[in-house]
Design a protein that fits this description.
Number of helices: 5
Organism: Natrinema zhouii
Order of helices and strands: EEHHHEEEHEHEE
Number of strands: 8
Structural class: alpha+beta
Distance between the termini: 30 Å
Strand order of the largest sheet: 1-2-3-4-5-6-8-7
Largest sheet: 8 strands, mixed
GO molecular function, one term: protein-N-terminal-alanine acetyltransferase activity
Shape: globular
Pfam family, one: Acetyltransf_3
GO cellular component, one term: cytoplasm
CATH class of one domain: Alpha Beta
CATH superfamily of one domain: Gcn5-related N-acetyltransferase (GNAT)
Strand content: 35-45%
CATH topology of one domain: Aminopeptidase
Protein name: GNAT family N-acetyltransferase
Helix content: 25-40%
Length: 179
């Protein structure tokens, strides 16, 4: 169900998540091609997805948007873990597997980063990614993030411990806008 556009990119639009989107979200976060890279190793039922919607999406401490391409929901992008005093937050995103490698995640991340610095007045944005998620690492680097460190064996996914790479982007380091 289409909703009002909040941010517009070159390839995607970003709009508020509505209740009608919950089925799409639940289906996607239960897909192993999504939950493995984001480190969510437990299934999500309808009630849990509704709780996410009510607590996170509708809460004042996050900005979570639906990524839409040609009127089709393809993923989410958002900011969470806000520290208002230090003016920083953490970026998170996922794109449905059938929409990978089309630039949707990069476009969405660029728009949210610009919004975070220009409208929210953030100074720093962090992001984290598993060592095995090379596409996400490339996405962050293409948007201007720098790898800052590694938390070794910090997450347990698929029966193994994995390193998590931490990235950061300061407001004065962001790349120039693309034409």
């Amino acid at each position: 169900m289409p909703g009002p556009v909040f941010l517009e990119g070159d390839r995607v639009t970003l709009r508020p998540i509505e209740e009608a989107d919950l089925e799409f979200l639940q289906t996607q976060v239960n897909d192993p091609r999504i939950w493995r890279p984001i480190g969510r190793s437990r299934p999500v039922n309808r009630e849990q997805e509704r709780e996410f919607f009510e607590n996170d999406v509708c809460g004042d401490d996050t900005v979570v948007l639906l990524v839409v391409a040609d009127s089709t929901p393809v993923g989410t992008v958002g900011l969470h873990s806000f520290d208002r005093e230090a003016r920083n937050a953490e970026l998170g995103y996922w794109i449905a597997p059938e929409h990978h490698e089309r630039g949707y995640g990069t476009d969405a991340a660029e728009r949210v980063v610009r919004y975070a610095f220009d409208q929210l007045g953030l100074h720093r944005i962090a992001a984290r990614v598993f060592e095995f998620n090379e596409p996400s690492r490339r996405l962050l680097e293409s948007v201007g993030f720098t790898q800052e460190g590694v938390h070794r064996d910090v997450e347990f996914v698929d029966g193994e411990y994995h390193d998590v790479y931490w990235y950061g982007l300061l407001e004065d380091e962001r790349p120039a806008e693309r034409d």
